[in-house]
Design goal:
This protein is of the alpha+beta class. The protein folds into three domains: 58 residues, no CATH class; 199 residues; 72 residues. Helix content is 63%, strand content 14%. The chain has 14 helices and eight strands. Strands 6-7-1-8 form a four-stranded antiparallel beta sheet. A two-stranded antiparallel sheet has the order 2-3. Strands 4-5 form a two-stranded antiparallel sheet. A hairpin with a 4-residue loop joins strand 6 and strand 7. It is rod-shaped, with a radius of gyration of 36 Å.
Length: 363
């Protein structure tokens, strides 16, 4: 009597793999046919996709780390500004992408002025005037089909969302929302935390327009960073400038009162005249001393604003690209062929089980 041995799991796996391979081989004509169809579709997408040129700017933000003098810190406290904590603080480059995502920044980008065919247009008009290519339509209704279907169920109201910036609530229209989505595809930013540099990239179909937009975006981003960095010291500067004008007016008023008194009493030398003259001279001297002190503080604050203002070192300036960055036609074709193989083989493997399930449901 022979003893039955349990089946070897490795042998069972080999049998299953062989069975799957046989099933795929039996449907090889279907696999080849549908893979060829996907390859043709991929070839059309590769050939009809719009040409894109990419340009970039690489820069490093540099800023003074000097702390504000103690005298300025006490003066700032009178203006309600915490200059001690703000001075020397840096705007982390990690926050730069958040600046690019802001509605105000994107609106400024859309307002960039361009010259196309001798006409002055905005970047917004340039985007809206771009024709739809066959390749983009194929992409929209193939790879981008899920997003297209979801957009059919989106709201048709004029205002889709709102964002708050600088204490102001901004309403975003549907047209702006769609334009903002396009900007996310056109403009990107990469942060190298190890080397501490920022790379701003713009991709467009026109190399000259791409270079102009990249340069303007670089300026807008740097201006926004500078504004955030010197916000508190600028508030203090406004406060000190207002006090400067007040004390200047007080000094001039005291000086005028002293001059008028001397003119009216030129030939009088009584004791009361001397006392009043002394008081007026003391008032003028005090007003003059206060004004000079405020003037010194004003110069200190101006110096502090200058120290707080970051300076950007351009490592790689924007240049007009000469070589296209997309489409990568060979890669697109390979992806579509691979997609055709996966879809066709997957359908071949689940075809019979799926039919059995449907048959059981019907019965």
């Amino acid at each position: 009597m022979t003893e039955q041995r349990p089946n070897d799991p490795i042998e069972e796996d080999q049998i299953d793999l062989i069975a799957l391979a046989k099933k795929i081989w039996s449907k090889r004509k279907r696999v080849v046919k549908f893979t060829l169809l996907f390859a043709i579709a991929g070839l059309l997408v590769a050939l009809l996709s719009p040409v894109t040129y990419t340009t970039s700017s690489v820069f490093i933000p540099n800023s003074s780390s000097d702390k504000a003098p103690s005298g300025l810190s006490s003066l700032a406290s009178l203006a309600g500004v915490d200059l001690s904590s703000a001075s020397g603080s840096e705007i982390s480059p990690v926050l730069y992408p958040k600046i690019l995502e802001s509605a105000n920044f994107k609106r400024q980008v859309l307002d960039i002025g361009l010259i196309q065919d001798g006409d002055s247009i905005s970047f917004k008009e340039y985007i809206l005037n771009q024709p739809k290519t066959i390749g983009s339509i194929i992409n929209k209704y193939t790879i981008g089909l899920p997003g297209t279907i979801m957009s059919l169920f989106s709201s048709n109201e004029e205002t889709l969302s709102a964002s708050a910036e600088d204490g102001e609530i901004l309403a975003i229209s549907k047209e702006e929302f769609l334009l903002f989505e396009q900007l996310d595809e056109i403009i990107s930013i990469a942060i190298n935390e190890k080397e501490s540099f920022i790379e701003l990239t713009v991709s467009l179909g026109d190399p000259k327009i791409a270079a102009i937009v990249a340069k303007e975006c670089e300026k807008l981003l740097q201006a926004r960073v500078i504004k955030l960095k010197i916000k508190q010291s600028t508030e203090l500067l406004k406060y000190v400038e207002a006090r400067y004008e007040e004390k200047k007016a007080d000094m001039h008023a005291a000086q005028n009162r002293l001059s008028n008194f001397k003119d009216r009493n030129y030939s009088i030398s009584t004791s009361s005249f001397g006392n009043q003259l002394t008081r007026l001279e003391q008032d003028y001297q005090m007003a003059s001393n206060i004004f000079q002190e405020v003037a010194k503080q004003l110069e200190q604050v101006k110096l502090q604003v200058s120290k707080d203002t970051p300076v950007f070192s351009i490592i790689k300036p924007v240049v007009v690209p000469t070589e296209k960055s997309a489409p990568k036609r060979a890669l697109i074709l390979v992806i579509w062929i691979f997609l055709g193989l996966v879809v066709t083989i997957g359908y071949t493997l689940i075809e019979e089980p799926f039919k059995e399930i449907v048959k059981q449901i019907k019965s």
